[in-house]
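S.,

Sequence below, as promised.
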Amino acid sequence: MPNIINREKAEALIREQVTPAILQDVPKQSAFLQMARRLPNMTSNQTRMRVLDVLPLAYFVNGDTGYKQTTDMGWDNVFVTAAELAVIVPIPEAVLSDAEFDIMGEVTPRVTEAMYKKVDGASIFGIDRPSEWDADIITRARQAGNNVAVSGTADMYDLILGEGGAFAKVEESGFDVSGAVGGLGLKAKLRGLRTTDGIPLFQTAMQQAAQYTLAGVPLEFPKNGAFDNSIAQLIVGDFSQAVFSIRQDVTVKILDQAVIQDPSNGNIVYNLAQQDMIAIRVVMRLGWALPNPASQLDPNRIACPFAYIEPGTPVTTKTATFTVTTGAGNDATPVEGAAVEVEGARLITNSSGQCVFNLRAGTYDVKVRAKGYKTATDSITVAGSNITKAVTLVAN
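The prediction came back faster than expected:
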């Protein structure tokens, strides 16, 4: 066999071509923060909003000498409380010096993207929701009955725009749909939707601010990984009713004299000064709320400006049945019309003093109010079974 200098023998002399760019996707923004209404920046960790809670009533006077009746009004406090998002990225200084690219410049936008993903997941779906925040949009819509179940023969047009569909649920609550959020897999189901005149309901318009529209309202398809298709296919609502405020915008700080500890055991993981390292610390603080003030269509504030279409197999929830009474034992009397509030979601007790929430696993703060009684506060934990909770109110 003739001798030859083949590729294997000359491998050390062959130069590899390295592309002068990092192949990666563009960092994604927060769908919730783009669609909700932004309030002025917070000047402390909590902002209080005064919200109409009780509407006045008017009465006809009976005859020329009839008595005119009195009425009242009431207001409630809704709080926007800032929760902190933060992460630390340690990097050896030698790695920074030897790298061909600006590592810090690559890290910061990706960490910001991860924060936006957390914001969307917590505010819309309740995923890793901080204790400072009220219940998420899905939980609030579920308590208001604004979940649209999907049967085996369900038509997507009816689920979205038909009687009892997602749009109708929002409108029946007294709101107009201003926007929608869906999973990427929903596009295939929407492309064939037409009006009776054959006009497409799902449209694209690259030259407009909203790339996609559904029945004339902006439709977002979040690409930051936050949309949970196992909880909802499509969420629609009046996003102007959801408000948020920034306490501290995304802030980047470079540390070089700190130690980093393992929070589980307190052990020091890195000593930056001793190990010639730096750490990129990224922090963001913000809060959000769904005030839901009283209106003539919803005087008890139990409606929700959002609705959602469930997946084919809906998420399993457990019932939490509250029984509100005054007195104890044989003297216990049901309190009708008491407002039971679970992390912002509200229901009104019936003549038996009961109301039923459908909740996913978790721990929830509870507040119970009724005219003439002191406000009662408690908490419940929902796990693998339905629960019952008795609440006794004390008269003022």
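The CA atoms of residues 1 and 210 lie 68 Å apart.

Coffee later?
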